[in-house]
Design brief:
Elements lengths: L2 E3 L2 H9 L6 E3 L17 E3 L7 H13 L5 E3 L1 H7 L3 E5 L9 H9 L6 E5 L4 H15 L2 H22 L7 E8 L2 E3 L4 H8 L2 E2 L13 H7 L3 E4 L6 H8 L12 H4 L3 E4 L12 H12 L12 E3 L7 E2 L1
Parallel strand pairs: 1-2, 1-5, 5-6, 7-9, 7-10, 10-11
Antiparallel strand pairs: 3-4, 7-8, 11-12, 12-13
Length: 310
């Protein structure tokens, strides 16, 4: 089978099922596992490299209003690859190639490839997405082993979090300019890790906030995981927090419990590494009993201007 993935999370699911040798094309954002970085890219982004966070937000809102995606297909590359299976999504209107464009491109390909859409909104639905890919690729047995291992890790986190006598107030932010609450599966991750998400709602989309809302929520732990940004790019926006009235006085900031992580690799991708994201949260909420996943980067933001690596 020749498989094309139009989602970084789908690419990770495909590889978790041992199908990396059948993966022939990926998006420009697919970078994990590292082996996929050399595969042909079947998408382009409309976001300029030099765009600021505010400019990206304005572009997203404009594309949403017009019901247009931020990414386009490289149809010539897709024609050359001649996939048997295309894995995409319809959950987010702007963060992947539009479903209509995928369907139109597929109709022009020889053999009419199968298209599957992944639409997880909660952690349990990630398991459903893995099974959906497995059914299309005849890897059901492998999928159950993968899911069993993920569930084992989730249950280990939950067992530890159930021992907490006090659950801290947590703000998981998915964007800074303007601030956004977390959405979909992320508020659930906060709860499972032993925290109380004060801004996002389980199973609902992220929403635009005011900084007054963030300050009024008085979180005791803050985790900034900007969608699509690595730590370095996110830190470019951190200096602006110093001018936010009340930021330095937040319980989380005063206690040195405000952090930045890689929002591109974690929290934004509804695939197997959402469990890594859960373990990151668990470590920040209960560091004594929950180890940080290997390779997961965290930068702490003390109340002072200097940042320190934890």
């Amino acid at each position: 089978m020749r498989i094309v993935s139009l989602l970084p999370s789908a690419t990770e699911i495909i590889c978790s099922l041992g199908l990396q040798d059948q993966l022939v094309g990926v998006t420009h954002e697919c970078d994990y596992p590292p082996i996929v970085r050399t595969l042909p890219k079947v998408t382009n982004t409309l976001i300029p490299d030099s765009a600021s966070s505010l400019e990206i937000d304005q572009l997203v809102r404009k594309r949403l209003k017009g019901r247009n995606a931020l990414y386009t297909l490289n149809t010539d590359v897709l024609q050359t690859l001649q996939p048997d299976l295309i894995v995409t999504q319809t959950l987010c209107d702007v963060c992947a190639v539009s479903a209509d464009e995928v369907q139109s491109a597929a109709c022009s390909l020889p053999g009419s490839p199968t298209i599957i859409n992944l639409e997880p909104e909660r952690l349990s639905e990630i398991y459903d997405a893995i099974r959906q890919v497995a059914e299309a690729t005849d890897t059901q047995r492998t999928a159950e082993h993968v899911i069993e291992e993920l569930m084992f890790r989730v249950n280990a986190v939950v067992e530890r979090s159930n021992q907490l006598k006090i659950k801290p107030r947590v703000a998981l932010l998915e964007w800074l300019n303007p601030p956004f609450s977390c959405g979909h599966w992320n508020p659930e991750l906060v709860r499972l890790a032993g925290g109380i998400e004060v801004l996002g709602k389980e199973g609902q989309r992220s929403r635009t906030l005011t900084w007054s809302e963030v300050i009024e929520s008085q979180p005791e732990v803050v985790l900034i995981a900007c969608c699509g940004f690595n730590i370095g790019r996110t830190l470019e926006d951190i200096s602006g927090l110093q001018s936010v009235d009340g930021w330095k006085e937040l319980p989380a900031v005063e206690a040195g419990r405000a952090y930045v992580t890689d929002g591109s690799q974690y929290f934004s991708r509804p695939g197997p590494r959402l469990v890594d994201s859960l373990e990151i949260l668990a470590h920040l909420i209960q560091p004594e009993s929950s180890p940080l996943p290997e390779g997961a980067p965290i930068v702490g933001l003390p109340a002072q201007k200097e940042s320190s690596l934890h």
